[in-house]
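Risk register update: the risk of archive-format incompatibility is retired. Evidence:
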Amino acid sequence: MSIQRINNMSSRIAVNLQAKKLSLKSKQKGASALEYLVLAAAIVLIIGLALGSGLGDQVTAAFADLFSDAASGGATP
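Archived output:
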């Protein structure tokens, strides 16, 4: 085989691989959107269960303490 023929073949292979890579990326957009939707639904479900079990009051108190500490500059009373 000549060097020119090898260069032509490798160029065609590279172009084909790049085309396949681009087509796979476009297919991944739909899959990732679905994954984000499932993740968001799971987060909403977990938050709903936490709020329904009384854990919400503890989380609210923890955040209130955190924000009051931040407002006071971190100084402990």
